[in-house]
Amino acid sequence: MEVVGDALVFLRTLKTKYGLGAVSVRVFGYTHNIILDPTLAKRAFEHPPASFDPTSITWTILHRVFGAPAASQHQYISVFRRMCALLTKYFLKRQYAAEIIARTATNMAEILPQLIQVPGHGDCANTATQLPPLVRRSFSRATLQALTGKTFLDAHPTLLDDLWTLDESFAELALGVPSWLPIPKLRRASAARTRLTHALEHFITLEQDAQDPTASDAIRSLNELWRSENIPIPARTAILTSIFWAMQPNSTNAAFWMLLRILSTDNLAERIRSETAPFIHPTPTSTSSININISTNTHDLPNSCPLLRACFHETLRLHHGPWSTRRTRSAITLHTDKETYLIPCNEYIHVPHGLEYTSETHFQDAKTFNPDRFLRPEARTESLHFFGAGSSMCKGYAYAEASILVFVACALHTWDIKPAHGQWKLPRAKSTGGVERAVEDVDVSVTVRRL
Ligand code: HEM
């Protein structure tokens, strides 16, 4: 995936300099059609869902990356649609998603004030730390705990690190590189996957025996479905790992970049604190720490806090390069006014939605973080497709947005975060095919806020 960044530059050149609407390449015997023109991409997603195979790509990833046994493919395909319906219900539908968002907010209110140690009474102490691990220990923990419950995560303290270790080898494993090869990174990924599998076997059994009352309704419903369809435990652990993974790196990286961008832009943290003050109520405690009370309607943050939401969009515009990938189940035709493309059956279509996100023709001063651009009446976010498009679009986008917004607001109300070396500097980033990952530390000094 290191090549994704360069590939985007190359594809942008093909589009802008040579006016190409789509290009095809053959890799390992398959044809991959990369759609560069947004009109063609729109036409592709207008085709009925039946034109695409909904499971071939997800199954390949489930098998190669998350270790689902080959023998469970048929059962996976038979429950796929019902699983997607459950994910849509619990992460996208307002009345159900409110439960998981509220659980996440409660976790954040508990976890954030505890993370920065305040030794005894008196002045708040400065804690020197790095921003990416601070976001993982707070945001990742709060979101995963919202799904699994606390009991399970406390019993498996390496689980989050294991997910990240597996993520580092995602591209190689998805391409089919065997995990047993003596390559240190792959060996680490394989060991992490084994630990994740054991932990989740334990979790599924606990949940099944109703011994963990802290697990979410979403997890309970998924497990009920798998039980009723006799999905074997190894397939369930692989599917659960894949759901945890879908939840984690993109969201955590986005939360990190959003917090950093706000902190490093003049006066923005203060503006966000005022905007979110009706939702987040910090109160001092006797031990120079603070309690965070979060209003029960946090799922309304995206609608009630336009500046905070604009920061989320601006962060994704600058740090996210989403792709949609489909495999055709029948031949499809794509038209613009000038061109027609025929894509035969059993070929891949890839849409790199982010080609224009940092182009001056679409955004003035495109490289600058300027959330106010999304507050203008004429601003349009519908064409940005941060979460993909069509029937296989992200199943967690409403939750992703709400959880990141709550986290950033809570972090700004809980902590004063300053650059350790006097000035903010953006770390080098690696393209991932999703939200970029920082590959350098960001040293910060953090204090619990004085109120
Ligand atoms: C900032 C955070 C996130 C971003 C940027 C993101 C982005 C995406 C993108 C671009 C896709 C591919 C869509 C396509 O092929 O057209 C996707 C798929 C998916 N995402 Fe997310 N996602 C995020 C968070 C989440 C969360 C929190 C969940 C929680 C369950 C989730 C669950 C999924 C699932 C299940 C799919 C596969 C959908 C399918 O194949 O039908 N995502 N996501």
Automatic annotation (TrEMBL):
Statement: the UniProt record of this protein carries the keyword Ribonucleoprotein: no
InterPro entries xrefs: Cyt_P450, Cyt_P450_E_grp-IV, Cyt_P450_sf
Chain positions recorded as heme binding sites: 394
Stated name of the protein: Cytochrome P450
Principal cellular location given in the protein's record: endoplasmic reticulum
The keyword Metal-binding is annotated on this UniProt entry: yes
Family: Belongs to the cytochrome P450 family.
Xref: Gene3D superfamilies: Cytochrome P450
Pfam families in the record: p450
Membrane topology label: Single-pass membrane protein
Keywords: Heme, Iron, Lipid biosynthesis, Lipid metabolism, Metal-binding, Oxidoreductase
Subcellular location(s) per record: Endoplasmic reticulum membrane
